[in-house]
Every structure is written in C-alpha cells, then in structure tokens.
Amino acid sequence: MASRDWVGVLKSPIFAVEGSPLPWRAFLYRAALAAVTSVSTAAVGANQLEGIRLHDGPESTRVVLSTTDVATFKVFRLEDPDRVVIDLYDTRPARGFAVPAVDSPMVDRIRSSPRQRFNYRIVMDLVRRADHRQLVLGPDASHPHRLVIDLYPAVGEGERLSEVTPPQRDRDVIVVVDPGHGGEHPGAIGVGGVYEKNVVLAMSRELKRELDGMPGFRGVLTRDGDYLVDLRRRFEIAHRARADMFVSIHANAFRMKSVYGAEVFVLSTGGASRETAKLLAERGEGASNGFGPVSLHDVDESVARIMVDLSMDSKQNESVELGEAVLGALAGTVALRKKRVHARAFQVLKSPSLPSILVETGYLSNPREAKLLTDPAHQRRLARAIAGGIRDYASMNAPEGTLLASMVESGTVRYVVKRGDTLSEIAERYGTSTRLLLMRNNIASSNRILIGQVLFVPFGKASGS
Questions:
Q1: Is the pLDDT of residue 9 over 60?
Q2: Cβ of 272: how many Cβ atoms within 10 Å?
C-alpha cells in the first residue's frame, strides 16, 4: 500500500472522532504516521551523491557527479559573481563524500550544502562566465550513474563570429583530426583491455604530425588528451578553425575475433536527410546549429531548405571523393575489410559545411590487429597513409586561396633545405621522385645538398614517381 493510502486510513473515522484521534489511539496514530513518513523518506532520499570529478580540456571543462541512482536535477547560471548551480532533488551526500579541491582554468572552487529537506545544492564559482550543457549517463561495468556538466567559455554571437580567422592568401589547407571517444567513454575495448580512446589519440597525434610536415597543410585536433568532446562541439572546433575537411579516427571491435581490416565511412543519404530536417528545425540557433559560421535564423524557410540541401549534397559528394582517396592510400599499407567507401548515419559525419569521413583503422577484437594498432611504428604507417590520401584528394580539389592551390597551379615549389633533410624525403613529401628533383635542380646524384640551399620541387600527380 502506498504511503498516501496509509495516511488516508489513519485519518478515517475508524481512528478519529470529530476529526481528532481517539486518546487511546493517539500513540498508535503518531507512531504509524511516523513509520509511514520514515518509509517515504527512505524511498525519496535513497539517491546518494558519491563524488565529483573535473576534467579540463582545451575547449571546455567537464564536471562529473557520480550518484547511486539516476539524478533528478536542475542546472542554472547566476551572475555577479558568475556561478553555475546544480540542484539535486531527493539526494543526499554519501558517507565519505567530500567536495574536491579545484585547480581549473574554468572553475575557481566548488561549494555544496543541503537544500530544504532531502535536496542538495552544488555551486561552482567560475573564473569566467561560461555556458553549460548537461548529459545524463547510465551505469556501466566501471562507472555508476553520472550527471555530466560541460562548461564552455561564454561568447556572444558577435564575439563568436569575430573569433573565426578570415581566409588568407596562400593559407594552409586545414584538416581537423578527430580522435574518437575520450574521458568517460573508452569506445571499443579490445584484446588485453586496450581502450580505443587511447589508440586513436596516439594515431591522431601522428596524423597531425604528418599533416604539419606536408607543405601547405595543417592539422587541428579536436582533443589532445583523455577527455570527451561533445559531438556538436567537434564541429564548432572545425568551424572556428576554418577547416577544409574533417577526418574522424576510430578503431573497431566485433564479437568474432577473426574479423579484421580498415574501413572508411561517409554519411548515408538517410542520415543526411535527417540532419537536414534537424538543421532547419534548429535554424534559429545560428552558428551553433552545425552550419558553420553562417546563420540561417533570418533566412526564409524555403531558401534555408535549398541552402541546406545543396550544401549537404555537395559535401556528401566531396566526402565520398575524400574517402576514396584515403581508402586507396590505405590499400597499399594495411589490410582492408571493405574495399569501397561505406555510408552510415554516424553523428560525427553530419556537418553540412565540410567534407567529412570516419576511418576505422582496424579491429581491436582481433589479437593480431590489436597488437599492430598499439604499435607506434604501425600507427605512424597508418597516419602516413591517411595523410597521403588527404594530400591526393586536396591536390585535385585545392581550396582557393591556399598555398596548395598556388603549388598546383605553378607545378613547382621553392623549398629551402633544413637540417636533417634528404632528397628522397623531400621528394616523398611533395609527391614527386628523386630523379625529377635531381633533374629540375641540375644536381648530380653524387652531390650532397646543403642547409639553406634552395631547391625547385616539381609538385603534383603529374610529377610521376
């Protein structure tokens, strides 16, 4: 019987005369009511706050509240001074709970106190004004229930647009490299307990190094540590960097250990259609809606639909071309599970403003491939192949105003020799051959190159090999 039903029985005429409990039953009434209240309190106040953790990333700070049951809560912001407040309903601190000391660029300190009966308040005093997003995560094998609050530096719409660097003449081609998962989300767990989030971060760092080493290219990581970046936030990082393409790096797992091989994915037609509808529904949010720095809120709905449809179709086609170039480069380096680009409705591929691909570098559930994927030498080979595919695609689709476009147009690059350079490495870096490099610069094969020497490097697929 529910507690309210018992209260109704206790207040019935059986227990009272003219609305007051009979004297001989007064003790029973009070005891029973106390027992009901106690049962109700135990049920209502059963949730406990077990701990608070902070993870600082370059773009945001993540605050994780661990609870014994799913949290009922409210999050809001206060100003003068700037604070974010979390009210937990029907929750009390667990035995041994302590507010952690904070050393964070976003949060100055954390305070906590009981609020009314059975409620609990967490107050985060901020270093600077911040926006927040919240996420509720259920328990898994290694984590309890979690309430996740992500804090981002607050910027107005005008500030957000002014932070975006305008295109420059002979700028680099910007490639956003996105290591999958991170922080509370390990991704696939492979043979020997290896976590996908760690493997793909190492490979992504290698890929960035490869891209930064190619003239006319620059890599930007969505994360450079063990923390989770919200999927939409990954797009925002790309848009702020004025990215030309988005490459998400993952590793797979499957119930059958015999499955192995790399795969490349692009956004499916169904996923694109659903994202188009979502963007139109959210078009009032401007730059935060995934359409880059362009706001759709003041555009007529029919015009907005045409803009999004055309952009989505165009970027889907470009994504396929990018995916095929990367897959072709991987084919000569690693085993492939699928020899053509496949389409899926992965959320991380849903930007309508730039070509995006997802590279599954192999299967951590396969013992042999798990060993390879954790080997730094193999990670470098993979990164070099992916970077080569990106270069092949970009050379055929060089963005206007980039150094790459100038290189492709002239067919020659002026290069100054640095310490440690060799002719073969320079030739490989520019996609040409040592023979053509020697011929173009009138160098005998026995001659040594000197630091500071100027070389004219034939560039592009037409250079041969």
A1: no
A2: 23
Q: Which residues pair with 126 in a beta bridge?
A: 107
Q: What is the CA radius of gyration of the chain?
A: 29
CA atoms within 13 A on the CB side of 345: 8
pTM of the model: 0.57
Using pLDDT thresholds of 50, 70 and 90, give the confidence band for residue 345: low
Cα gap 369→259, rounded to integer Å? 9
Q: Is the peptide bond before 139 cis (omega within 30 degrees of 0)?
A: no
- Cα 432 to chain center, whole Å? 35
Tokens 């730059």 map to which residue?
287
Residue 297 has pLDDT above 90, yes or no: no
Decide if pLDDT at 148 tops 70: yes
**What is the residue-averaged pLDDT of the chain?**
76
pLDDT tens by residue, 406-415: 777 767 776 7
Nearest CA to 360 out of 260, 264, 267, 246 is that of 264
Q: Which residues of 101-131 are buried (b: 16+ CB within 10 A; e: fewer)?
A: ebebebbbebebeeeeebbbbbbbebbeebe
CA atoms of 203 and 206, how far apart (whole Å): 5
CB count within 10 Å of CB 454 equals 9
For residue 355 the two structure tokens come to 């070509």
Q: What is the distance of C-alpha 310 from the center of its chain?
A: 26
> How far apart are alpha carbons 246 and 349 in whole angstroms?
8
- What is the tens place of the pLDDT at every residue in 310-333? 444 556 788 888 998 899 889 878
Query: pLDDT digits over 45-79, tens only?
Result: 468 999 999 988 777 888 999 999 888 888 888 88
What pLDDT, on a 0 to 100 scale, did the predictor assign at position 279? 43
Phi first, then psi: give them for residue 337, nearest 5 degrees: -80, -40
The DSSP string of 88-142 is EETEEEPTT--PPP---SSEEEEEEEEETTTEEEEEEEESS-EEEEEEEE---SS
Asked if 407 and 215 count as a contact pair (C-beta separation under 8 A), the reply is yes
Q: Which of 408, 405, 309, 394 is nearest to 357 (CA)?
A: 394
